[in-house]
Design a protein that fits this description.
51% of the residues lie in helices and 11% in strands. By secondary structure, it is of the alpha/beta class. The chain folds into two domains: 4-143, Rossmann fold, CATH 3.40.50.2300; 151-217. The model has no long low-confidence stretch (mean pLDDT 88).
Length: 221
């Protein structure tokens, strides 16, 4: 359940709009800050006081002014927050809708939702909050369509096995010994690397982390 929410946004009008959306969902314990440093400080204090936030809604871009900041934007704020409160749910609310950036945030920063600012963004943000409250991820529609288009690879049992091992924390170089022990072929490191590279090329990924996140989100592993 989401009760306490922190909004990190440097435009007051957007803050008011987000607060209104939260109120419509019955979430009245909301705070907002204009700077990323303040957002991190609020989250740190919440953890220390045993009054942690349930959700962070943050922009990616923050306008620079006379106040010097250690954290200049959402891309730096998210991993910093994860170190303080790993289980905090995070929704990015940004004008940027670059698929590679969004996929990176899901794959590497483990965000829970992404909403693009624009037409019908209040409705989309409401949907995102409701989805995240159910412990599910919320993808922007244009990215969902892209994922569906990319879901053209027919994952074999072998594919699922090696990706699952990676997802469970096993290093790629250690997988051959595991496969040899259980009698799975091909078990050579070169074969594993080639297979992973083929899957990533097919799905237009560059890193194993992106592939793992995709497989989790699609229910493949």
């Amino acid at each position: 359940m989401i009760k306490k929410v922190l909004i990190a946004e440097d435009h007051e009008s957007v803050n008011i709009s987000v607060e209104k959306t939260l109120e419509e969902l019955g979430m009245t314990q909301t705070d907002y800050v204009y700077y990323c440093d303040d957002a991190l400080a609020r989250i740190q204090k919440g953890v220390q006081d045993d009054q942690s936030y349930d959700l962070l809604i943050t922009d990616l871009s923050f306008i620079k002014d006379s106040r010097v900041q250690k954290i200049s934007g959402g891309l730096e704020l998210i991993p910093a927050v994860r170190q303080v409160q790993p289980d905090l749910r995070i929704i990015v609310f940004s004008v940027s809708c670059i698929p590679s950036t969004i996929e990176m945030l899901f794959g590497q920063s483990d965000i829970d939702g992404y909403v693009c600012k624009g037409r019908n963004d209040a409705k989309a943000l409401k949907e995102a909050i409701e989805t995240v409250a159910k412990n599910q991820r919320y993808f922007p529609r244009h990215l969902t369509q892209k994922i569906r288009q990319k879901n053209v690879h027919d994952f074999t049992e072998y594919d699922i096995k090696i990706i699952t091992l990676l997802a469970n924390g096993m290093r790629q170089k250690d997988i051959p010994a595991y496969l040899i022990e259980e009698g799975t072929k091909p078990a050579g490191l070169s074969s594993i690397e080639k297979r992973l590279n083929y899957i990533k090329e097919t799905l237009e990924f560059t890193k194993n982390e992106q592939l793992i996140a995709f497989c989790k989100d699609m229910g493949i592993i």
